[in-house]
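User: Let's play a game. I give you a shape written as tokens, and you guess the letters that built it. Ready? Here's round one.
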């Protein structure tokens, strides 16, 4: 009987050790860095998600080949959210169960707003490549590599005014989308300080984004020489097509959401000739870092990378810089990692594809210089 009790006690102790080890594995003890990625890999915004997470994968491969982060390799796992908040939450939970310690994502704003709440509760460090709404970084654990919506709007207005691209400007925006509305608001505010006049502000919603004849006619009747377009590339392709059909040929000026228009299926890319984009990345840049990335991306994925690919690439190197600054190892708990990484972010300076000397405020916003490209002969060309 005593022997039986001793056997049971040993078995119980072993079970407790296994249980404690399992819990420890969930909270720390990893021998690799587990970085998750979330973005739209299918659906209407798939071009963004695939670009960002493809770029992130290239960075992971480079870092692993060079020895990892503080001597530890990276595991990278990407999940599809189809630009849907509910699906993004499901993707996040899947990555959390996998053991994610840091998140590259999410790629688009609305899903990111939902996920950011969860990552803050779970103490998971998050860097979004391209979710630009300021509310995304309302928690201490989340940072942006992209410009915020306010920065994009004001920088665009300044650029148009300083370069004297037009004297009469129209704005078409999506009033049901937080990204589009946020950029539009600050564009209009800054325009009051510039030499041009906004002659039309006209909106559409997600339920009415197939016919823009009314909005375009308003712009044409008001004599708008330039149309500011703070929305995504799918809509831009429709607007450019319909403007051409009615013989209206203003300058079209977009921000990062329009990046990808040259890849829209069945779109006549000749209609994008002369379109301006405010973007921190141009694939035709001659610096060694950009050209190496472009070649690697083309060889691996068979296409020229857009800004979102560069954003995703930079996210991984930003996480690396913060981890090295704080001298972290992946066997620490998520709470320890998140706190240290968040503090280190305000102390690092990163030379990336989307900006040299990128720094971060405690608010989570990035500081870097904007640049513009113009579409010529079917490619992006840098402009001063």
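Assistant: Ready! My guess for every position:
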């Amino acid at each position: 009987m005593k022997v039986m009790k001793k056997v049971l006690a040993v078995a119980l102790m072993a079970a407790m050790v296994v249980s404690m080890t399992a819990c420890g594995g969930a909270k720390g003890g990893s021998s690799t860095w587990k970085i998750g990625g979330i973005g739209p890999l299918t659906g209407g915004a798939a071009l963004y998600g695939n670009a960002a997470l493809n770029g992130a994968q290239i960075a992971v491969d480079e870092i692993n080949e060079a020895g990892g982060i503080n001597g530890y390799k990276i595991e990278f796992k990407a999940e599809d959210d189809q630009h849907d908040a509910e699906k993004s939450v499901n993707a996040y939970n899947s990555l959390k169960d996998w053991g994610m310690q840091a998140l590259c994502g999410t790629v688009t704003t609305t899903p990111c707003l939902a996920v950011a709440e969860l990552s803050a509760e779970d103490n998971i460090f998050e860097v979004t490549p391209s979710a630009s709404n300021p509310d995304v970084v309302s928690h201490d654990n989340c940072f942006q590599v992209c410009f915020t919506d306010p920065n994009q709007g004001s920088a665009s207005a300044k650029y148009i005014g300083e370069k004297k691209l037009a004297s009469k400007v129209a704005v078409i925006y999506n009033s049901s989308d937080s990204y589009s509305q946020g950029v539009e608001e600050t564009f209009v505010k800054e325009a009051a300080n510039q030499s041009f006049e906004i002659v039309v502000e006209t909106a559409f919603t997600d339920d009415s984004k197939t016919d823009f004849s009314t909005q375009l006619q308003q712009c044409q009747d008001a004599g708008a020489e330039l149309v500011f377009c703070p929305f995504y590339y799918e809509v831009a392709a429709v607007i450019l097509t319909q403007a051409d059909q009615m013989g209206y040929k203003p300058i079209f000026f977009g921000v990062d959401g329009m990046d990808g228009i040259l890849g829209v299926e069945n779109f006549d890319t000749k209609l994008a000739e002369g379109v301006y984009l405010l973007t921190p990345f141009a694939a035709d840049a001659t610096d060694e870092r950009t050209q190496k990335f472009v070649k690697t991306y083309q060889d691996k994925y068979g296409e020229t990378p857009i800004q979102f690919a560069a954003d995703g690439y930079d996210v991984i190197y930003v996480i690396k810089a913060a981890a090295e600054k704080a001298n972290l190892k992946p066997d620490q708990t998520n709470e320890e990692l998140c706190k240290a990484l968040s503090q280190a972010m305000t102390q690092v300076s990163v030379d990336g594809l989307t900006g040299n000397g990128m720094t971060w405020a405690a608010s989570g916003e990035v500081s870097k210089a904007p640049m513009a490209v113009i579409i010529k002969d079917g490619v992006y060309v840098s402009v001063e």
